[in-house]
Amino acid sequence: MLDEDKIRHVAKLARIALTDAEVKKFTPQLSGVLEYMEILNEVDTKNVPETSQVTGLRDVFGDDEVVKGQASREELLECSELPVDSKQVRVMAAIKQ
Amino acid sequence: MAELNKLTIREAHEGLKSKKFSSLDLTKACFDEIKKRDGDIHAYITLDEEGATESAKEVDSRIAKGEDIPMLAGIPAAIKDLINTRGVKTTCCSPFLKDFVPPYDATVIERLKENGLVMLGKTNLDEFACGASTEHSCFGVTKNPHDLERVAGGSSGGSAAATAADMCFYALGTDTGGSIRQPAALCGTYGMKVTYGRVSRSGVTAMASSWDTIGHFAKNTDDIASVLQVIAGRDVKDSTTPDIVVPDYSKFLNQDIKGLKIGLPKEYFGEGIEKETADTVKAAVAKLEKAGAQVVEVSLPSTKYAIAVYYITMPAELSANLERFDGVRYGKKPETNPDNLVDYYFDAREAGFGDEIKRRIMIGTYVLSAGYYDAYYKKAQRVRTVIIQDFAKAFEKVDVLIAPVSPFPAFKIGELVDNPLAMYMADALTIPASAAGLPSLACPAGMSKGGLPIGLQIIAPQFEEGLTLKVASALERLK
Fold it and tell me: For A53, which of B210, B362, B365 is closest by C-beta distance?
């Protein structure tokens, strides 16, 4: 079900560069894992809702007030090694002009 | 008097208050032990002797002034290196964050600091908490204090080993599918996995957001209760922490368990579980029965599906969470000179991830991709509901469930590292409670003939951490 081409495609989607050796190593490993997942087809889940949150909380609101951040802007900027310009981090353009 | 680093939190607290010794003495005793043993065990990846000494002196001066100090004040602790600590490197044991120094504290650290935290250092884990053996750390493996050829478990292997080897009094960890309970069991210490949302996740690197919990290791139930008391509760910075009262956990200790109904889920004692492990856990349960508890067998028929549910939904959430490690938001900019953003991402991520992370990101990306989303991801979320319903039915009949934590004691280093599916089975008995967001306390149950610890877990309904403590405390008294 998972062949080397698919592994390469998925890796590309995830922005992970794989070497040929890695593709060879991961293909059987990941196929094995996904084949194992087929076990879920034994369970009848017709009319069973999906769970993405286990404690039943929904629509959690906070008070509409400004609170002080835990770190200053300067401290946050220091975490990046990218060039800083007007208190912002300069990144590569996403769209070429 | 016993060596200072071997005291319980309460004993250390009493000693501090009566000025038998100082927090600095406790801190030094821990660092002495670390220097003696951690070269072999490798529980810590960063030590902060200077910071710890300063914090200890601060608490000592408060005591000298006659101030009343809280239970955890001046008690040296270890922190899993997934939890942000202001000014102290927090690496997640990934090459990506090898030099990352967070500019703020996680909420749990803030709360511990308000209570006089003395942080000895940061402990080893599987990269981004992905693993069950701490072998997937870019800093190398943590060894089991009981047998240096074996793993300490994972992903919180460093915190478990540091606690078990008396290189700290307690340690923080995280548990997504078993990452506190399994290493606690393999190292022979106590490990608390809380209800999802009981402890704030703010400031802790996310793995699988609908599963992640923050908890801790300690040397007895009383100490587990003391730490839980401080870290539990609502936090506005984590909207999944509900406004549910945090009870006085010490009240659950030393209680009579007469009439308490304990369920033994038969699926946790059957196929794939080593007989010695199952027998040891049953022997411990027999003691509770003798003390007046009622023990009944129950069934959680969907147990066998939990690993598949976990290894679909967790990588899905993980792959989304790790998107931010792209050389822009987190991580280093690539040394190559790419001329477009996509290549920039490839090059930045290339340097960052180990094998297990790559595997999980790819599984996650695959199960979320068009055409597979319904078949894998949605299906897994539905089966997760079935697992939750199983537990709900069981808790109609019993107060708590008791089961083994790991199907087998600590395995040899390297034994499972290239067999991901076999490694995933190490979490077979811890994942179901995580799927349902239930609290589960891992406790030592006994030793194998080979001299390795065997652990049991006490699982309770959501937000009933107190019940797990009540049972664990009874078990402790019966030893």
Answer: B210
Q: With an 8 Å Cβ cutoff, are A60 and B326 in contact?
A: no
B410 vs B183: CA distance, rounded Å: 9
A18 contact residues in B (CB cutoff 8 A): 358
What is the per-residue pLDDT across B434-474, written as a single tens digit (0 to 9) for each? 999 999 999 999 999 999 999 999 999 999 999 999 999 99
Which residues of chain B are within 8 Å of residue A2 when distances are taken between CB atoms? 366
> What number of other Cβ atoms are within 10 A of residue B278's Cβ?
18
Q: Would you state the CATH architecture of domain B1-479? A: Alpha-Beta Complex (3.90)
| Containing structural domain, residue A21 | 4-41
- d(CA B382, CA B331) in angstroms, rounded, equals 35
Residue A31 lies in a domain: yes
A3 burial (CB, 10 Å; 0-12 / 13-18 / 19+) is exposed
Q: Please determine, for residue B379, whether its predicted confidence score (pLDDT) is greater than 80.
A: yes
- Model pTM score: 0.96
Domain boundaries, given as residue ranges, for chain B? 1-479
Of B240, B167, B151, which is closest to residue B204 (Cα–Cα)? B240
**pLDDT tens digits, residue range B197-253?**
999 999 999 999 999 999 999 999 999 999 999 999 999 999 999 999 999 999 999
ipTM: 0.94
What was the pLDDT predicted at B333? 85
Task: Say whether residue A14 is in contact with chain B using an 8 A CB cutoff.
Answer: yes
Q: Which residues of B touch A81 (CB under 8 A)?
A: 332-333
Q: Closest Cα to residue B282, out of B292, B271, B270?
A: B270
How close B213 comes to chain A (CA, Å)? 12
Tokens linked to B271: 């196929």
Q: Are B33 and B165 in contact (CB under 8 A)?
A: yes
- What is the SS3 assignment for B170? strand
Per the structure, the count of domains in chain A is 1
Residue A89 lies in a domain: no
Domain assignment present for residue A84? The answer is no
Residue B239: HSE in the Cβ half-sphere, 13 Å Cα cutoff: 8
